Amino acid sequence: MVRKPKEATIDIEELPELIAPIFQQAQFSLANHRKNVVSLHKLHEQAAQVTQPLGKGKGLQLTGEAAFNKAFISMVNRILPIKKGVSQADKSIKFVAAFVRYTSEKGEFVDGIFCDILLNFTPAAEEKEKNGETEEDETTAARFAALLVKHLLRGFQAKDKNVRLRVLQCVAEMISSVGEMEEDLYLALRSALLERIRDKETPVRVQAVIALAKLQGDNPEEMEEEEQSVSEVLVDVLQYDPSPDVRRAALLNIAATKVTLDAILSRTRDQDTTIRKLLYAHVLAGLPHPKLLTIAQREEVVKNGLKDRESSVRTAAGRLVGGWVELFDGGLVELLKMFDLIGSEEVAQEALLSAFVTRPDLFDSVEFGDTYWENLTPEKAFLARVFVDHCISIKDTSRVESSLPVVTALAFKIQHCYNALLELSKEMEAQDREDSMEVDGDSQADREERRSSMEFTVAQLLKLAVNLDYSDEIGRRKMFGLVREMIGQESLPEGLVARCLDVLRKLSPSERDLIRLVVEVVQELRDLARQDEPEPEPAVNGDESQFGDDRTEEGRPPAPAPREITPETQARIESIDIRCLALCIGMLERVNSTLQDNSALHGLLPELIIPSVRSKDPLLRERGLTSLGLCSLIDKKIALSSFTLFVQQAQVATEEIKKRCMETVFDLLMVYESEFFKAEHRIEMLLLQIMDQDSPEVQAIACEGVAKLMLSGIVADDRLLRSLVILYLTPETEDNQALRQCLSYFFPVYCYSSPLNQRRMQHIFLETYWHLKEYRESLDDDQEMIPPSQITLLFVDWTDPQKAVEMKDQAPDTAVQAELASDIVKALLIGKYPVQLEPDIRADLSISKDDKKILCQMLGRLYIPADLDNDKAHQLKILTSALTMHRPLKDTVSKNAFTKFDNALSKTLTEQLEGFNEEDYAELDEIRKRFEWTEDVLADDSSEGEDYGESHEPTPHKARRVPRARDPRVQAARATRKRKAQEELNQEVDKMLDSDEGEGKEKDEDAEVESVLSVTGASDEEEDDE
Questions:
Q1: Per-residue pLDDT reduced to its tens digit, 98-111
Q2: Do 530 and 565 form a contact (C-beta atoms < 8 A)?
Q3: Res 941 pLDDT > 60
Q4: What is the pTM of this model?
Q5: Coil, strand or helix: which one is 8?
């Protein structure tokens, strides 16, 4: 007999009819959810009071609660099969979650009634009762939530993706409201969510991430060994899941902790724009204070955000920086203290400029009074300099005049800061001369930090001085004299040399005056260094030998050698020469006039630059080569005579010198294109040689230089283009991010900028594909490479004529991929790759079964225009017909793909192929040669076997095929070629430079150029000796 309390008036048999209308209303609008939740809760409360006594005094059976749960779950089951995107199902799931949350908040419904037997009387419950255990801590809400979770867990393994999606969506919505769960239920739920996070369906993984994120906070002590925590799983999803939707869900739901913060910040470089925007607008903006991030993390956030390619991300990053300023009550100096100004000046400048743009009130409130300049700090000097630069960029001259001090005052301020820097440097040198064991490490580091801060402050003031108005003659003279005195001092920090030259360039009337001033300072410094150098004894013979030549004519005694120089004096001389070379480099970078127009430079070549090039000190030699390269850019004769030297040093010198020389080589090729490319094939051979580098940085510079030459149209060689593609796709360069980034930008721009470039890419496809295939077969087991199908997709994209930019002087070429299709079908017909191998190399050129599949599938992706030329259309159709009739493909996949392409071709070229007769077409004289080769290939069809690309002549022994990259013969041949190329390199370059005889035989050639030629030869001999 069912027992009901007096207040219960509900009939449990009518519960389904009472619950259904509530769900019916809830699925149409979110506005009525609160009312319907309350109504459903009343039904639940009344049903929970309906109980039935069990026999022998064992307790009460919750018949009303069971009836309500059954009716509720029946309503939930109706939602589960509904596919994604139906709004009624989404509203119903939100209603279910709202009801669970409401019931959990209300707590126990039955006043004073606790049940010993739950919904289903199980043996486990009976056993607990026998042992004296009770379930008095469970409530009706807890039992209802646990039952619903257990029911939903059954759908995690459903075959229907819609059911998996809906059950996970329910769990994700309600899991926060369930409250405490039994340990077994929690572990089962956690395990099921971890399994669904690897589901093949993206929407399912999204809901699994949302649900799993609400279980964060695992206790490491309770976890098993080598078991991942929820946070670690979410970090893996955030970084490696291929779907942007899943990564977005992980980003918005993962907690920002020390474990997850690095992974969160790595999404500043995510491929998806929305993720990058959400990171700045929501995740980082939600942090309590930016000081929770380290200085390096703040700089990474600002740099990646403010330099993002999408304007929406840049705007979000700018608002984030503006929010940081508000935390400091508009204090821009406090904002700058969050960055490393000395090490990352550019990042701090971007942040400050962003604050000026996003917060115009901050820009209007900036003022520089007299007190501002009294106690200058690096942040104050940096703020003033950036503010003035921004005013100049927006052409706000009135703010510039009101902000900057007068020239004389700024000159005295620079002098004061520079004197303080010199005093601190002297103190540090005095401490270094004392016993180093007595020096406190912390105090030494503090002094070094103070010195760097002072140097940075002086540098900012010098940058500020460039923008001053020097109409005041007194102030101009004061500033000129100060900067002139600074660069003439040996103690001037090298970081301030360029800043002083900028000020002198502004104050000098012309480039000639600047050059004369710098040369004068260099002479003074060198004279100062050689004051203590002993004078050499007078020579016995008054005749002088040629500069750079230690030998004399036969019969003449050699000149006496100078007296020995002490090591201290030699070190000081080299230090001064390094400083003088820094001045020369800075000066040459700031002038555009030729060497002939500046006679003051003539003395620097034989006295400073060329001896530095011949020096064995790496730093001195590097700067000497840099100076010689800059001189070559302003004088053609020096460029032609020193080009060989730069090429040699780019291959045999140290890495730093290689980088400088490599940059110089490409600069000279760009500037003197007409001179060096008279012998184009020799230059192309040279470029192929210098791209073969062991150092990743040097190789990246070489590839970048070749890419610039090809993009500008100076070089158009298929071998170079093929080499760049191979370098881009081989795993050897996967860690060379500079090279990969350069080439990933180069190839689309190169191909889309000109139809001729797409033609070159079409010509190299088959040969490049074969080389990459051979390289792939020679890889070790632990090496990975891009699959061949992806390689074909890249070439399809690069040669797509629909993506080419229309140029005024170039007609569009829509037949590029049609001819690429002809090349592929021709190769399939022959059965071999059209690769030209050297005589000493033997390799298998036959097209394998897997390659046929990939090439046939590639044909279907090529663009065949409907207005294709009749000649090309007929030729392509002849090739496809010949392949179908005489060389049919054996593999089903290849055959189906090729048949699909052939049918699409006939449908696209209906007009061109109408009335087409292959025999009549073959009789045409102008295309007879194109057709004859197919007849030769098809002449002997009887000898063809299963794979027509292989020969079926009997052979006594078939050797095991050795991958080309591992074949000892190939390796020996490569070593021989490389050695020969190294030996012939100088001869080739010399022949190229001697092609213009008139240029090299002028009688009025300058003495300085003769010195360069002489020293170049001597330097080459010294290099060989080394």
A1: 999 998 887 644 43
A2: no
A3: no
A4: 0.75
A5: coil
